[in-house]
What we know:
The chain is α/β, with parallel strands linked by helices. The protein is 31% helix and 27% strand. Among the domains are: 2-40 and 161-225 and 320-355, FAD/NAD(P)-binding domain; 226-316, D-Amino Acid Oxidase, Chain A, domain 2. Helix 1 (7-19) packs parallel to helix 6 and helix 3 (62-83) crosses helix 4 (107-125). The mean pLDDT is 95.
Amino acid sequence: MIVGSGIVGISTALALRKQHPKAKIVIFERGYLPSGASTKNAGFTCFGSATEILDDLKKMDESLVWSTVEKRWTGLQRLKGLAGVDFMDYQQHGSWDIITHAEADKVDYCDSQLDYLNKNIASITGHTNVYKKHDDCAKQFGFQHILTSYENSLEGQIDTGKLITRLHALAVSQNIQFIFGIEVVALQSNLYHVAVQTQAGFLKAKHVLICTNGFARQFLPNRDINPARAQVLVTTPIPKLKVKGTFHYQEGYYYFRNFEDRILLGGGRNLDFEGETTTALDTTEHIMEALNKLLREVILPNQEVGIAYKWAGIMGVGKTKAPIVERIDERIAVGVRLGGMGVAIGSLVGQELAELFH
Length: 358
């Protein structure tokens, strides 16, 4: 039994099918679609913007920072191979880490670290000069209040819905079953099986693999994993939209991109860390106001723009950005705490989780 039908859950199931061709593999999902971040993320294929990596280096061990970046890069290559770039509408337009005039004090330090960043990322990706300073970002895309930016030429974007549709189809083709609308409430390992309490009654499974990311704390109360809500809005169509690519702001706490002829914008968790440590899938007025202000003052200044959609998704975070992939006991294992990088590392975490039962 796999709990959670997002990127990690389906990737785990597909990897298990290769290892166990005749096993009965069933994925349980509490929603009528995957309920966590896999269907509600912003669709970034990011592995590390310049300011995010430099900020992480101030807080974390250097080797852990770069091993995490490598895991993201490796995971993205695996995801492309697993799902196929055409099936998830993969587009590599690059990304830009934007710096406002109010953050001018960051520029000298970022400039001084570009060679260091490029040397390390080249050893991971095989590509040189991945990070570049881009002073004309505001002029190119029509932004306002932007001093400069740092471009990452290797980042791109996907259609999240198409990705999940593709992974689901692959799993069904491999005789992997899905049961939607049933929540797993509790687990108990016994000598020969795991007793599984669900809202529909009790079940038994030989093994249970938990792939619920930010919702996993109910199964791991003593581990360093917390839910982290991310709020997103999408505009109405914008004629002659200049913006094309993915963009990061304030060490990645804000992020936006074009989706066809619209802007998809999310973030603001840093405005209320305590309030956003929740599994509630609601948007909040003060964060939506902050996103709207960024949209109208910086991204699309002097333009009339409407909001077509808004939603919230739940990530899983901890004190470090490394995921938890381990056995809880002989019959239960977890692959959780993806740190907001589920698109990048989800399929790799699924592979690693499956290998625990090889």
